[in-house]
Specification:
2 domains; alpha/beta; seven-stranded mixed β-sheet; homotetramer; Alpha-Beta Plaits; Rossmann fold; four-stranded antiparallel β-sheet
Chain lengths: 286, 286, 286, 286
């Protein structure tokens, strides 16, 4: 990944009107940017224009440090909001886990193999079980006991850690704890993997309930976390076939693969800035 | 299909105990039956044994007319319930439709091409739109207006038709009407296609709600109809990928393919007696 | 489909260089075009830039009749090639069939239901079997016997028909005949459905060979036809699961569904001008 | 896994004739065996009967040590061949790897999480790269340099290791070396993962060739190894969607997931004795 030439990635959402594609790409080109990807989406119902433009940093006429300010002026003119990212900056991500290792390990492996452009300086867990899993991956494992009774304290401690480690994204890799609205206000970029095909089987024990319902497919959903449980914008969904032969334990086993895949794909698309959230939905330019 | 030698298909459910596979297959063999398929499933939690045995009619020692009585004695001994079917008998099926043609047409085509071993002497619809669709397929099209206000009358008329035409199975091919519990008591074998991945989006307008929720996969579910809406035993589920580019109308378009496939597969498996219902679940020996 | 406002769709391929996205979209906007979709792809290895831009016809400053000339001047300046299409023009498509009806019928249905924006004035077959299938769909069915011995004559007759009926696209819906290179030179836009997951099982009897090989998945491939058999640019591929229980006849049955889906999707994307061919590959902006 | 009561699994292949299901299951029951699974398949073309019967060890009338001899007598009587397995015996498996870690790590994780009922005392590699990957998994890592020039010596060394470690199954987890016919004669049970949808792209660099061909789906195939390269009986195949945006490196990345899944599923089915090989095909009772 690091061998690709560095690029600038702009994500912008603004009210739709004629001429926006041309105006945005014209601005990049006028400043000497060599555009590599240019994706746009109009949500006619919402009256919104979404744009993702990626261009080479080398040769761009505006100095790296000044790009954000220049883009802000552009976005203000369009009445829009933006995110700006440089592909050679690896975001600092914290992984939250509980007792199940499969998603945590899968993400750490993918980082090591170069599939996920990020750093993982911090792993937070409400249990001690997975400490050894992180060995050799360079992440500090911090045990923050969490339960319904001490949630406020635990979240305060976690927010402190996220600040200390300068974390940009939190990934709930089977964390099994609900984060409060006040937590999310202070740290909004959280990606979760839920072990069902949302909106089916929100909440606890989806595999048990899927078995009882007798479904023929199970699923997993990676989504941004919002205060409303299992209701945030969906990034990716995967499924697996099941049959009457499968016990709940088989659903759990098969589900681990769909969970790992959905979470890894969603996170990669997020890190590559291919996901744009608007309202309760996402546009995914992949 | 008609060229395969005729077979006898026995489906039996009884309390589980040791020796049942041997006892059942031994009974078939002892009577000269050449077994072609033998599938069994034990639901340990429910304490149930499910069995599907298919053997060649030719050479079987019990006369065709006497097989049902002999099987009944066997099932009684095991405290079980059974269904018996001869593969050379084409069940008489009624298709229920409303205004959308895709499932109706798909089923008629599959019958003609030999994919679905059944006859369709009767098509019932609460609208006139699809009458011409049935031309050339040999089915009588009967218009039975149905609305919330006249449901009892409409259902009475439909039950009459089902009796007159000696219908064994009703298929709701996008019928869009709810059947009452009393209807189902009198005519229990009804297969429906619901245009969502149940239990997500039960009820009305699942594609609109799927679009609003921003899912990345849509689905269709073929299931046996029970009094509780969209809650009957699931036979087959299919999915299709969607993206932010897809409007509700695209979900509807893509959904038609998943609906057709799920319904056709489920119906074929039902007709081939590969589906066994127990409690709210199915075992599918396919 | 016809209710959407008419759009202009430009597909352009040219040598890659900096500034092309901006230049193309700028040209559209400068002429008053309200862009609805703007998709681009750079094939770095081939040094090619591919672009698909769709804008509203209403309000565009260049008169409909003059757009092609204006675009030609633009494309010439960029050293590129282009296709121009108006969404309110329904292309005239000929479907070629042989004895199997499933793909032919599926396409005719989809036209009638509004899924495929095209007209089908002509169906060509080397057999008489499917004539009645076309009843009620408004297509003329022309029987052109074809075999290895009379291929030149048959192709001459077909080219005449394609000219007479002003056909733009030919779709081989299980036509089972090879078209010669000289035919393709004179009529190049031909889409075929091959009943395997290309490049596996090129040529004859792919299902028989798939069964013998013992594969666990079968596939279908919709592709543009080139002189080299089963080697043209791929538009869409679909798969179906098979098991040891499936005989060759089951593969053929299951395959019909994958064939129908792959062909219908590919054709729709072609008609919506979402497919661009370059070299032996396609970019699909869907 | 270890908590399930131990079972006996019998796999038997013999010439087909009437009465076999009854005879086999009758033999189990007559000896007090409580059958949990009973699956059979008749290959009419080959005239073969395949059977997999699984029953509880506890309560079975024949002593564990004597079951093999008793089954042999039964199989001889039927002119068949059999495999016998006890579910509480964990087979000793050697994993062969080269430089890529994803399949090796995936398998080790699945063993640790209880998904794969096996032991891995030995990892063989022709490179040193992955030695540290095995840390903490209890496998000895043995470096056996292998190239075209020293194949005979390398294979001799490997056969020695397989014997010393009492290995029953070898899994080629991206081993990238061809095993000779004489090796396979002496150690026949070898499962390989090939990174294409066989029979497409046999041999070297399938992802490069898939990219050049412009396919829309890539695949992976887990199969038993035979002397003929990439031609052995297929156990499992998986696929992933690709688009024109994907470079060869993206195909390789996406392919890793399909490879891991296909290999893990195939190996699990092999270990659960759900796979039966006959001729160049497999029956998979899963």
């Amino acid at each position: 990944m690091s061998v690709s030439p560095a690029t600038v990635i702009l994500q912008l959402i603004c009210p739709d009107r004629s001429g926006l594609v041309s105006e945005l790409t014209g601005w990049v080109s006028a400043n000497g940017g060599n555009i590599r990807h240019s994706d746009h989406h109009i949500d006619a119902g919402a009256g919104l224009f979404l744009s993702r433009i990626e261009w080479q940093l080398e040769g761009f006429g505006i100095p790296r440090d000044a790009i954000a300010a220049a883009v802000k002026a552009l976005a203000d003119r369009l009445g829009g909001q933006f995110d700006l990212h440089f592909s050679d900056e690896l975001p600092r991500v914290a992984i939250f886990a509980s007792k199940q290792s499969h998603c945590l390990l899968d993400l750490l492996w993918r980082v090591r193999s170069g599939e996920l452009p990020m750093q993982v300086p911090l792993v937070i867990s409400n249990h001690l079980d997975l400490e050894s899993v992180c060995d050799g991956f360079g992440a500090r494992y911090v045990h923050v006991p969490a339960s319904r009774d001490n949630r406020a304290d635990a979240e305060a401690r976690i927010l402190e850690l996220l600040a200390d480690y300068e974390i940009e994204v939190a990934v709930l890799a089977k964390y099994m704890q609900v984060l409060s609205g006040s937590f999310l206000e202070r740290f909004p970029t959280v990606i979760n993997i839920h072990h069902s095909f949302l909106p089916a089987f929100k909440g606890a024990q989806p595999y048990h309930r899927a078995w009882e319902r007798g479904v023929k497919l199970i699923g997993a959903t990676a989504h941004y976390v919002t205060e409303e449980l299992d209701d945030g914008p969906i990034i990716e969904q995967t499924i697996a076939h099941v049959s009457h032969r499968d016990e709940v334990s088989d659903l759990i086993r098969k589900g681990r693969d769909t969970e790992r895949l959905a979470l890894a794909r969603a996170l990669r698309m997020h890190l590559c800035r291919q996901v744009m959230v608007y309202g309760s939905r996402t546009a995914v330019f992949a």
